[in-house]
Amino acid sequence: MQNIIIEKVETCETELKYKIHCRQDRQYCRCNHCYGPLGATHEWKDRVIRGPPVGAYTETIIYLKQFRGHCISCDDKVRSANINFVHPNFQNMTMALCEYAGRLMEEITCEAVARLLRLNPKTMWDLDQVRMRMMKPLLSLPEEIDLNFMSADEVHFRSLRKTNSVARPEIKFVTTLVCYKESKILSTAMGRDSKALKACLDVLSAPQKLSINFFAVDMHDPFIKVIKRYCPNAEICIDRFHLSQNVNDAFDWVRKHEFSLAKKQNDEFQIKMLAPHRRFVLVEKEKNLEKKDLKMLDRLKEINKNILNGMILVEHFHAILDKKEVVEFRKSLTLWYRLVRESGLKPFRKLASTIRKYRLNIESYIRSKLTTAVSEGLNNKIKVLKRMGYGYTNEQSFQLKILQRCGFLNSKFINTTGWFWQIPENLALNTPF
After folding, report:
1. Is 152 buried (19+), middle (13-18) or exposed (0-12) by CB count in 10 A?
2. Beta-ladder partners of 151
3. What are the CA-CA distances from residue 380 to residues 376, 386, 395 (Å)?
């Protein structure tokens, strides 16, 4: 606290309160509007301001007598004296308390911070929004950031209600651009189309885009087209998780078909083995299964040719993705294509055409072993963040919060130490609340 005279200090150990009674030093008082000198005294206005915790005292209350006098520069109007240590957007809190609470909200919810500091939850939400908007112009990528390996993915934002019984619910997504080495989100954009990914890539300079060697995505053509155009040196890698998911879905289609046939034939054993709750057992590696399950699977393979062929195709495909050399991958994939043709299973034939389309991108995965695992992990963190906030409806707020929790929009990477005492006027004026 600057330019004040402390008259009395009280402590309350039972309520953990620290009370400071003070007044402004008359000789340092300046007009709150023009910062000119104040003349004759008009009155001393009583103010109650919240300060940061002091030691064991979780609540600091400042009882301040603010000077009000006649300002010659403002046509002798009565003006209040400027208080340097009060936040310009939140007049009942000191700069130090706002920055202290803001740093806490980078890690925990606004509600939790309000409960710990005995403040209003809505005020904490407003403070968090103002602080993130002030930090956004200062956001920049670290100088030595490694952009060789990148990935992009989308995460669910919200689903809007149907306007009528016929219309489908509108689902909104947020696209995230992830640096694999840093495990951080560099930028976000609403949507999951080519415009969204282009908006994310706009945070990178032209040399930075050219420095990307491998880019991991799922089999989403709009993303692939944008990467080919704006990151010409990057090899696009199809994520292994999505490939495995597709082959498992193909097998599940076969399981459902055979399950319906078993129900028509009233085959109790096959009904039991092909039931939906056992679908993961059928595609699990044999070394991870118990002896009881292995015996039942062997019996199922003997009596159901389609299930046997499907299990062979799934196991062989996973083995293909484990290859370390592209030459070995191509040989194994050629054999897998032949097995698919001989099996006659339509879902796998459809999957084979998809694999042919993205074969070069899968080969890039074999060379780099780059996946979207980091993106999926950050997506899970975003989902937890959304649940903690009981959902988000404001797009800008959600994107800023993602960058704060999963990116570089926080005090760890942006120096806000000076904000404990003073906020630059241009930042404070640009974020009124």
Report:
1. buried
2. 178, 216
3. 6, 10, 18
- CA dist 181 and 201 (Å) reads 17
Report pLDDT for 431.
56
Q: Do residues 364 and 236 touch, judged by C-beta distance below 8 A? A: yes
**Most distant pair of Cα atoms in the chain: their distance:** 102
* Tokens representing residue 409 in the block: 């929009």
Q: Residue 193: phi, psi to the nearest 5?
A: -110, -170
Instruction: Write the CB contacts of 8 (distance below 8 Å, at least 6 apart in sequence).
Output: 20, 21
- Alpha helices, DSSP H, located in 91-183: 95-105, 110-117, 121-135
Distance CA 145, CA 89 (A): 34
* Environment class of 397 (CB within 10 Å of its CB; exposed 0-12, middle 13-18, buried 19+): middle
Element (H, E) at 339: helix 326-343
Instruction: Give the pLDDT confidence score for residue 82 in this predicted structure.
Output: 87
- Residue 65 burial by CB count (10 A; 0-12/13-18/19+): exposed, middle or buried? middle
Of 184, 243, 199, the closest CA to residue 362 belongs to 243
Please determine, for residue 237, whether its predicted confidence score (pLDDT) is greater than 90: yes
Phi-psi region of 280 (alpha: psi -120 to 50; beta: other; left: phi over 0): alpha
Cα separation of the two ends of the chain: 24
Is the confidence at residue 49, as pLDDT, over 80? yes
| Token pair for 39 | 């003349």
Reduced DSSP (H G I as helix, E B as strand, rest coil) percent helix, strand, coil of the chain, to 5: 50, 20, 30
Q: How far apart are the C-alpha atoms of 270 and 267, rounded to whole Å?
A: 6
Secondary structure of 223-259 in HEC code, one letter for each residue? HHHHHHHHCCCCEEEECHHHHHHHHHHHHHHHHHHHH
Between residues 214 and 39, the one the model is more confident about: 214
> 297: which 2 tokens?
């699977």
| pLDDT (tens digit per residue) in 399-427 | 999 999 999 999 999 999 999 988 877 77
Is residue 330 within 8 Å of residue 338, measured between CB atoms? no
Which 8-state DSSP code applies to residue 123?
A: H
Assess whether pLDDT exceeds 60 at residue 433: no
